[in-house]
């Protein structure tokens, strides 16, 4: 269009200095990364667990183990993107409860499996879009909005179900949460792996992912650079809702029953996964690999302690300590580590 | 002055609470009688106190998700103490509750202050840790009414001038918070670091230390409420007040406390808690299933946020003269 | 040039009393940077000392040391002849040292009275804050500085920038500070407000206060200061009495060589009209804006801060909605509802607030540059890093960007280089119209000249440029025509020949010529 562009390359070649792409070696920085730390933790837990219990390394127990994190992990993938963009969704567990309740209602009315799945996923998408509209169209802080919708969505489940439960799901509905695709590989696990690959590609290899990072770093500069900030955030809320909807299908299928208190407290575990995986709660940085590793770690800890007959509530202590210490240790290391002469 | 009254969030909130009471009592006149209203206040005391503690934290642009877990742990400590050593007098137990709550608050504050970890991450962690610790402490066992001493249960129910001690404690807490937040330099510094942390540093306020103080206050209140909760519902278990932190935050939000920090008043927060309390008490009266409570408070939060956002919207500089006159 | 006039106007005879505050051998390093290398500074009571230096010379580090925010690595500080340690902001405050920053020191949600007294509020005998006395004393302080119209109970956010400034000054008065540091106090003020500030400074001087005045603007310095101290690259390179010291001497100290502010020579060759704006209006900010912009033209927009210039530009860029009027770009009607649409059409905007609206500080240079061009560098939505590096290299090298690598975070660059990244980002989109809002604000003289030269190059190649600027020399030196705005309206358009500093200032201020 203008002369500027065509003139540009010539001027470049006339200059002697050339800016290098990068200075550091990618391999070296990968070795020192957060993900590497997480990999070490995974290995350490594997070793400890396999010494602690002879059953641990059995393929079937490892397969069972995956059920501890697949549902939460699926949501954590989308939550990671949302947190990187500078927002948060506390209503995901409530979306699961509402989705499960509506599926239960539909199942009572005799709707078949495909219809139930559509209802579960559709509910998730609708709830996500509702959050998205409140945050992006009305410009409200997402942490408060989703505390509100969290009560609203689960409240609706309570209004519908009260202290009752839905249990009449069709037999073939059980496949999603209990079925196996091949050998020890459950449908949930395969779905999680596929979703992780999709989200990895989306976040790290596409324009969309780049824009998500930009928004998290500086939303105003992003907007002033032509990024449609509100639209992308809206899509992310829908995506998070969608994953919560999928998770609601899985958990309902796995448990075979619905109570309004289903998946209570999952939102905090999902966020813990994301943060443990290196996603900055302040937005702007994070990786899917980290989130997947964090999901595996949380599954391993839960399962490993389970093999040792440690009750679930105690495992939550370990998760909590892990969450704080993996963030605190690097800070302490930076502050006191290098200066100390050992 | 009267014009600015209508600009006050607290005014509209008070109006909403009164309207709610009026609506219910239009069909059920007994609802509005002083005895019942005092009962509602008493029922809402714990929520009110916890919300005030939370408000102090939110003012500093932080959040304390661990309040309910702190309450649960502290409650278990005093319940077990009482069950095993019934001779320990109630005032001593209250001191223990305050002390344990404070220690848990100090832990939160330490990570936020000294290590600069975002409060939402720290308290998300301690939320699970404190509740897990309750299980470790109790071995999963419950402490129920028949293991608690009569004094332990009766203390908050004693009437003083016709009003139960629990209500007096809540009133005293409200008064202390009001004086603290409006009349002390420390109280004002909480607002200052919420409004403009950079400027606060230049004013000689230590932002980290002030946040630490906020978490200590929140911890103290949670600890006190730990004892009061256990003695009110006469059962101590790992499940006590599970998820209650969100009700507490809801009361703050409805009360006009800005999650972005620096904005919020004692009166607003108390009204926010009362709003939820009135709804909780009204539902059974108007024959609506208590299962509606959650969805209603959820809607109230969303509505409150929408209205708060309108109120906080900045009136930008207006350049055109004629528009200024409008 | 106008500095020359000011010298004769303000040159009080300066006696030499004992200095109130003396810094000696102050050094401060940060990881990778030696911000201050053994600097000295003497401040005298009843006098204004101007601290002069380019960006990065160490001025703001010094202010932070004086206010107790940073601790020096070496050196001594003495106040009133006694050696002191400014261990905390509170300690500096106790010693009577206070700083007035642009907008950063105030609290929007708190009242005027509290903004004045936060940290040293009057207490009653119970140790509680005494609000009644606080209000009374606020009224008294405000009255002392002829600002009695401010109500101590007003919330600060309801005040304009100039009034907020008065509150900041009142705060300095209220603590009875002996040393007042003013860090670019006029940055956001109009000409009239600046005059009022000068009066206040005179008042403070008369009370024997010691004032450190930091500014980029030479006319201001000559107008108000008695002494000067020049910093360069973290060192003190000169100090003395201002009267009789020519501007060129100080500039030479600042940059280490003699530099006249020279604008590039160019012979404008105007082409076809590119952008045509008619009757553009906004409900509250501007009204009836109309102009035509040609290929190869630099159209200057001059006016006081708050005249609505940036708002008009952001309307053209799609980030501020309009209530009427038409924008025509190369014969096609354009109604940009977002920056994305404006960029697509070929209008780009280099914002005034570089850190907030211009760069993404924690992202590498190449990602900053490719951001609006991702559609072109990617293949069906999938990132192609090689294309991004090539694009970034092409445009940043053309601007002579100084960086270690293209993967360096943009936030680690100096202000001038950050501006180059922003401009490179926009050139990469191959725009038709480029709007520069205060393009050289807060960047050093070297980068300033580079930006000006580059603008001349762009228009020579046929791009159309709009430049918003509040610096008279820049407006006059760069523009082919100058639009003057006042209170949201276009007042007059000057051709290059009609333009004089006096006429621009008078038109902008609404004084009949």
Poorly predicted runs of chain B are none
What does the overall shape of chain B look like? globular
- The percent range for strand residues of chain B is under 5%
- Largest β-sheet summary of chain A: 2 strands, antiparallel
What's the CATH topology label of chain B?
ABC transporter involved in vitamin B12 uptake, BtuC
Alpha carbon gap, first and last residue of chain A: 64 Å
CATH architecture of chain B: Orthogonal Bundle
**Proportion of residues in helical segments of chain A:** over 70%
Number of helices, where a helix is a run of at least 4 consecutive DSSP H or I residues of chain B: 15
Structural class estimated from helices and strands of chain A: mainly alpha
- Identify the CATH architecture of chain A: Orthogonal Bundle
How many distinct folded domains of chain B?
1
* Global outline of chain A: globular
Strand order of the biggest β-sheet of chain A:
1-2
- Please, how many domains of chain A? 1
Protein name (chain C): Sugar ABC transporter ATP-binding protein
Domain ABC transporter (chain C): 21-258, 270-512
Organism (chain C): Mesorhizobium liriopis
Pfam families (chain C): ABC_tran
Structural descriptors:
heterotrimer; A: 342 residues; mainly alpha; ABC transporter involved in vitamin B12 uptake, BtuC; two-stranded antiparallel sheet; 16 helices; 1% strand; globular; disordered C terminus; B: 326 residues; 4 strands; cell membrane (chain B); cell inner membrane (chain B); Autoinducer 2 import system permease protein LsrC (chain B); ABC_transp_permease (chain B); membrane (chain B)
